Amino acid sequence: MRSVDEHLTEILGSVAALPPLDMALLEAQGTVLAEPVSAQAPLPPFDNSAMDGYVVVAADIAAASETSPVTLPVVGDIVAGDTGVSAIAPGLTARIMTGAPMPAGADAVIPVEWTDGGNATVRVSRSAPAGNYIRRAGEDVRAGQVVVAAGTRLGAPQIGMIAAVGRARVTVRPRPRVVVVATGDELREPGSPLGHGQIWESNGYMLTAAVVEAGGVGFRQATVEDEPGKVLEMLEDQLVRADAIVTTGGVSMGTKDVVKEVLTGTGTVNFHKVRMRPGKPQGFGLLEGTPVFTLPGNPVSAYVSFQVFVRPALRAMQGLEPDPLPMVSAVLAEEVASPAGLRHFLRGNLSFDRGTYTVTAAEVQGSHQLGSLATANSLIQVPEDIETLPAGSRVDVMRLPS
Ligand SMILES: Nc1nc2c(c(=O)[nH]1)N[C@H]1C(S)=C(S)[C@@H](COP(=O)(O)OP(=O)(O)OC[C@H]3O[C@@H](n4cnc5c(N)ncnc54)[C@H](O)[C@@H]3O)O[C@H]1N2
Ligand code: MOO
């Protein structure tokens, strides 16, 4: 038996970040930036108006008030997108729109609400300091400033930022393409009828969805029978399109545990019992350089194994830190028991009330009981050396992706 940490260390020692690719900005959504993106020019690139109103020389309206407005001749309109050079002489004003460049000579913007909105002349009924409602060049981003650092996952704000500095393409680590393979003669496709002893295939769906949640592209492969030749052939066929392969089922001690049978010693794949529950039987290795994770067949075991071993590896392949799922410290609502010597991952429900996280373990914790996983929002982690934790104890809780 090996520990969870030993197994994870072997995995992380064998996977590498995928080579970077140049991608169109919108295609890169959800990928991880492999280069720092910096601004070629300041943002905003020029001083501009923050309001629809009038540009003035502040000193000209220093005495303006509701009771004694100042009237100025309006010499023109400056709208956003104006490229011509304009200037304002003292004693004059021009109408200006939000985002339009400040004309030379003017040093303040008066919002239209402080005026009578006049066309030929305008009455200004409030004074303003120099700089009023002017957005200065470079006050958002300085020229040369890194706006999105390498290693950042590109969400909507980062994509907006990169476009704002004029870039249409970026160098990113692509999403890892992960082929998910479910094995088992008893498995039938959801949507088809079941005979006695058969069940609908669910791990393939669940793990493909988990791959997507972890930032990868999931390809669910049609179920294969427990026939060694077919399983090996199918796995080898998948290598052309896979950055990683995840299998589920066929790794324990049964006579039909074909994944273990065909992969033991193939490439660098090896099988181990890991000191955890659920998820004890695990296999991992490289097949022609591609990481292969052979997860157990019990649905909750497969899911927990994915979160503990596969997700960190997929993060490393994207050039991210192989962090575990976000963890919080919570108070146990009820006592839990845990097997000696195993790290126990219990399905739980985490809630936050008046500054404290509380977690309640699901009533049933069998590794075949998917029902209690589908209603859980977290996994309580009980360390190997603990057998009982009374209500009120502090525990580490992993939040499941939502
Ligand atoms: N003698 C022993 N028996 C078992 C041991 C052991 O140490 N000694 N370990 C148990 C543990 S722990 C686990 S976990 C399972 C792992 O078994 P396998 O990985 O070989 O998985 P299967 O036997 O193929 O299936 C187990 C269970 O899960 C259901 N299953 C499998 N694939 C799917 C799927 N794609 N969708 C839905 N359900 C699936 C399958 O029907 C079985 O009920 O071994 C224990 N046995
Ligand atoms: O580990 Mo099995 O994964 O306990 O059911």
UniProtKB/TrEMBL annotation:
Residues 179-316 form the MoaB/Mog domain. GO terms for biological process: Mo-molybdopterin cofactor biosynthetic process. NCBIfam families: Glp_gephyrin (NF045515), molyb_syn (TIGR00177). Belongs to the MoeA family. Its EC number is 2.10.1.1. One of its GO terms (cellular component) is cytosol. It comes from Actinomadura livida. Pathway: Cofactor biosynthesis; molybdopterin biosynthesis. It catalyses: adenylyl-molybdopterin + molybdate = Mo-molybdopterin + AMP + H(+). Its cofactor is Mg(2+). Catalyzes the insertion of molybdate into adenylated molybdopterin with the concomitant release of AMP. InterPro entries: MoaB/Mog-like_dom_sf (IPR036425), MoaB/Mog_dom (IPR001453), MoCF_biosynth_CS (IPR008284), MoeA-like (IPR038987), MoeA_C_domain_IV (IPR005111), MoeA_C_domain_IV_sf (IPR036688), MoeA_linker/N (IPR005110), MoeA_linker/N_sf (IPR036135). One of its GO terms (molecular function) is metal ion binding. It is an enzyme of class 2 (transferase). This is Molybdopterin molybdenumtransferase. The keyword Metal-binding applies.
